[in-house]
């Protein structure tokens, strides 16, 4: 056993949520950094047992089975640790919750090989390097600020992934959208990759389940602040659903056309709205039952300065608009 390898011995109680899933597909969702072929090798070698017996990759789960996993994982993180001043709002020996600033990329990738959250987590301790994705179990877009939960042990990481799959982590967001969103409601349109613009997602037929609950907080002239709760966590989910409803997020470069501003807004505020540097979206609350201690964990993150300033500007806009009756939209190329 290499000093950088580590052993996972885990017992998983299957719920009815996974009824009908193949065992290899089920484990792929729990170990997203390992290919299905690799997991099939674990099963073939007898490293995965159902109710104490060896199994096959094509075995369908019925619910209520007990899966025992005994595998040796090689260190999977090759990225370099970096010292980073992370804003950690909760931490114990099993997990942490941090407040990610806008502009911080979560994972290294094309154009962002370093300086990511993953690099910063590796810089915290050697133990994080032993975990897939340094303990990251979900993500926020680069220009979305707010809360993320990160595992510090392999057992906790698996259990957090299970909680996300069963929608047992409450994720609440704050956003500012264009237009008057009058009533609370739910969007349940499926989401998939856009047919022609591959960097975008879209509401599509036969996409992945996506459920977004929303509630307006405060109305301004032609803008609304909104509280959003997610049941699912699809890529760009809030941004896509709000756009689909005709209420794109302020500042959203993919779905919101930041140059579209009420023509009646005074010139100074027009510039503020057009130059807002990101989508106006913040993950403000996480709540879940701790997967190890069973303690109820509730973490809140205050709005960052840029969103506070945006709300102040919109308050000013609201006062200025009292003298106007008509609404027009101005486009700037």
From TrEMBL:
GO molecular function, a single term: 23S rRNA pseudouridine(1911/1915/1917) synthase activity
A Pfam family assignment: S4
Keyword Ribosomal protein: no
Keyword Isomerase among UniProt keywords: yes
Cited InterPro entries: PsdUridine_synth_cat_dom_sf (IPR020103), PsdUridine_synth_RluA-like_CS (IPR006224), PsdUridine_synth_RluC/D (IPR006225), PsdUridine_synth_RsuA/RluA (IPR006145), RluA_PseudoU_synthase (IPR050188), S4_RNA-bd (IPR002942), S4_RNA-bd_sf (IPR036986)
Keyword terms of this UniProt record: Isomerase, RNA-binding
All copies of domain RNA-binding S4, residue ranges: 21-81
Biological process (GO), any one: enzyme-directed rRNA pseudouridine synthesis
EC number(s) stated in the UniProt entry for this protein: 5.4.99.-
Cleavable signal peptide: none
Matches recorded under PROSITE patterns: PSI_RLU, S4
Domain of life: Bacteria
Active site: 141
Chemical reaction(s) catalysed: a uridine in RNA = a pseudouridine in RNA; uridine(1911/1915/1917) in 23S rRNA = pseudouridine(1911/1915/1917) in 23S rRNA
Function: Responsible for synthesis of pseudouridine from uracil.
Family the entry assigns: Belongs to the pseudouridine synthase RluA family.
Protein name (record): Pseudouridine synthase
Organism: Marinicella litoralis
């Amino acid at each position: 056993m290499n000093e950088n390898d580590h052993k996972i011995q885990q017992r998983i109680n299957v719920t009815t949520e996974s009824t009908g899933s193949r065992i290899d597909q089920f484990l792929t969702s729990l170990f997203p950094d390992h290919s299905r072929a690799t997991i099939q090798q674990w099963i073939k070698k007898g490293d995965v047992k159902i109710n104490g017996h060896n199994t096959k990759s094509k075995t369908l789960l019925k619910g209520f089975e007990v899966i025992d996993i005994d595998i040796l994982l090689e260190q999977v993180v090759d990225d370099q640790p970096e010292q980073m001043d992370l804003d950690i709002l909760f931490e114990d020996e099993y997990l942490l919750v941090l407040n990610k600033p806008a502009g911080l990329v979560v994972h290294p990738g094309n154009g962002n090989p370093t300086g990511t959250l993953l690099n910063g987590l590796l810089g915290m301790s050697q133990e994080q390097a032993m975990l897939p994705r340094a303990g990251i179990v979900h993500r926020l877009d680069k220009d979305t600020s707010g809360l993320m939960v990160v595992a510090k042990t392999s057992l906790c990481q698996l259990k957090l992934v299970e909680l996300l799959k069963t929608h047992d982590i409450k994720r609440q967001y704050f956003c500012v959208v264009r237009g008057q969103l009058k009533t609370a409601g739910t969007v349940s349109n499926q989401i998939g990759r856009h047919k022609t613009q591959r960097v975008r997602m879209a509401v599509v037929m036969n996409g992945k389940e996506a459920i977004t609950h929303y509630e307006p907080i405060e109305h301004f002239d032609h803008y609304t602040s909104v509280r959003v709760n997610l049941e699912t966590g699809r890529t760009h989910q809030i941004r896509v659903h709000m756009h689909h409803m005709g209420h794109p997020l302020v500042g959203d470069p993919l779905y919101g056309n930041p140059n579209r501003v009420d023509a009646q807004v005074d010139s100074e505020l027009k510039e503020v709205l057009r130059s807002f540097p990101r989508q106006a979206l913040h993950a403000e609350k996480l709540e879940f039952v701790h997967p190890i201690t069973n303690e109820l964990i509730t973490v809140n993150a205050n709005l960052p300065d840029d969103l506070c300033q945006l709300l102040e500007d919109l308050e000013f806009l609201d006062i200025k608009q009292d003298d106007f009756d008509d609404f027009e939209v101005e486009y700037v190329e």
